[in-house]
Amino acid sequence: MSQDAWLQNYDATCRLAQEIAENIHERNRQQRTGGNPAKMNMTLRASLQKLKQQIIQLRETLLRAASSRRIMQSEADRRQNLVDDLVTREKQLSSIFRGDTAEPSRSSLMTGGGAQGPPANPWLIDEPEETRGLDFGEIKQQQQRVIEAQDAGLDALAVVITRQKQMGQEIGNELDEQNEIIDDLSHLVDKTDGKIRNESRRVKLVETKASSCGMLVVIVLLLIAIVVVAVWPTS
């Protein structure tokens, strides 16, 4: 399994810091013995600048990885602690190079003040218990297992979301069918209401005609009665 690119760059930065510490020790030795460390100083300035740039790159890469959630928050915090330790180490080396701080013993200069010999990685002093004693490859494997577990959880979540989406689509289709039925009923009600109004108008017309005919019959009967009375001989 290939090693994480960020961890590879971090490991290279650690080695550069150790190389700078060794060169500072050699530069100071030459100064004490009357040598001319001018070339060594030029090399150290370039190395310190490179160290600072690599630390900045590590921090920017870590921020991008954390913001895009390519790594777990606990791993991002652990790596941030490593970068902070590198920043402290770079400041210490720069101060010793300028002569602002007295040079410590060679062993502490190389290891950052370790007790009995340099550890496998001198920058992992505050490393979490679950990764303590592991090399970068083993840490990468452990992280990969965590990522795989997260992926499995995301796959299960995706299945649930897909099922819910299907249910939502089915509910939507059912609602569409119900809306079509309601529209048909509304159309039928409108047609029935129109027919009822038409029939009501016809009934009123018939009633009006019937009423008119009844009055006409009464008038005709009255006229006949008048005529009969008029022509009927009186005794």
UniProtKB/TrEMBL annotation:
Gene3D superfamilies: 1.20.5.110. Keywords: Coiled coil, Membrane, Phosphoprotein, Transmembrane, Transmembrane helix, Transport, Ubl conjugation. One of its GO terms (biological process) is vesicle fusion. It comes from the Eukaryota. It is found in: Membrane. The chain crosses the membrane at residues 210-232. It is a single-pass type IV membrane protein. Residues 100-121 are annotated as: Disordered. GO terms for molecular function: SNAP receptor activity; SNARE binding. Its main location: membrane. Residues 41-68 form a coiled coil. Residues 144-206 form the T-SNARE coiled-coil homology domain. One of its GO terms (cellular component) is SNARE complex. The keyword Glycoprotein does not apply. PANTHER family: SYNTAXIN, SYNTAXIN-8. Vesicle trafficking protein that functions in the early secretory pathway, possibly by mediating retrograde transport from cis-Golgi membranes to the ER. Belongs to the syntaxin family. This is Syntaxin-8. It comes from Paramormyrops kingsleyae. The lineage of its organism: Eukaryota, Metazoa, Chordata, Craniata, Vertebrata.
